[in-house]
Amino acid sequence: xxxxxxxxxxxxxxxxxxxxxxxxxVAAARERGDDLVVVVSAMAGETNRLxxxxxxxxxxxxxxxxxxxxxxxxxxxxxxxxxxxRATGHKARSFLAHQMRIRTDNAYGKARxxxxxxxxxxxxxRDGEIVVVxxxxxxxxxxxxxxxxxxxxxxxxxxxxxxxxxDSCEIYTDxxxxxxxxxxxxxxxxKIDHISYEEMIEMASMGAKVLQIRSVELGxxxxxxxxxxxxxxxxxGTWVVEEDETMDALLVSGVTYDxxxxxxxxxxxxxxxxxxxxxxxxxxxxxxxxxxxxxNASAAGTTDLTFTVPKADYKKAVAVVEGLESIQxxxxxxxxxxxxxxxxxxxxxxxxxxxxxxxxxxSRERINIEMISTSEIxxxxxxxxxxxxxxVKALHQEFIENQAAL
Length: 406
Ligand code: ADP
Ligand code: ASP
Ligand code: MG
Fold this sequence. Notes:
alpha/beta; Carbamate kinase; 13 helices; 20 strands; binds adenosine-5'-diphosphate; binds aspartic acid
């Protein structure tokens, strides 16, 4: 008998019929003899609807109250699935974050899980129940409700699997697994059978939202094998596991895009020591994560500084910068119509010239590059949002469709 954690995403629980379909799948697994803990997301579109409601009331809603609101989506789907399971004749019990003591820090909207008390779940399993857990939510030390960031139910699932020492964590979604790029954007995308935690972390951080980054980090830390698969068929999906020699050594294993960042430019700031610290210190204190940064060559003692932040946080970042009188910027511009496109592959560690080849493809497609950043196993560029689809398809063709194994 194994202990399996299954997670169902928004589309998979998007209607009562789909919830009944999930209940049938969970019941079938139970009848095969497994112990099951099922983590659920809010019904498709619900979290967006709640975000928009708060936005209607004010531009920058209070973060604590916003989390109370957003966490409600998962309360509904969790209870509905528990009811659907009971209707199949099985014993089932729902748990919200505070009932499982999913403790997080107090970073509202992007809280990190610190600990989970697995004892109640274990008791419930011993009583023969199927446990249904609300994803995406936690409670901080003062019992405030927190949420884990968009896509956070993946992280809830892997954290619960780690806390229970489960045999595996199955992430059920609306695609058959992790693909070489988003299959909904690029029909030539190919399903990957096995991918290392390391590459998956990079794909997720560069925008492949099929798994939240933090879920893969936890999987790697606690050695939880993650199986990403479809909730609509029984096909084998993608295993996210430790790197091994059976994995295809490819130069580029994935192409990703991210439309969730905005670019902020500070024009004409004085070019002097300490300036970057004066700007990025307060932004970090406001809990805004800065991704790419470029500083132009200085002319007449001033320079332009451009950086990217999550779109959801750019108003906060601009407010912080505007409050810094000592910066003396001549102006601030914001561009939220950008996209970051990246190529990822562990093969890049040992092969030169990949970035140059990427730039050549983009130049052939007449796509202007606004920013560039590289790491050992990825190259990213910021481009105009309108050119994103073309860039992804061209890069996929160059590096994946026309590529042989190394
Ligand atoms: P869920 O609601 O099940 O959590 P998400 O919408 O969060 O599902 O994630 C699944 C979606 O991720 C897919 O529908 C697909 O469009 C998108 N996606 C982006 N990049 C990839 C990729 N490389 N492989 C698979 N899916 C991807
Ligand atoms: N419901 C949350 C979201 O839409 C969490 C999740 O789906 O994983 O981001
Ligand atoms: Mg998701």
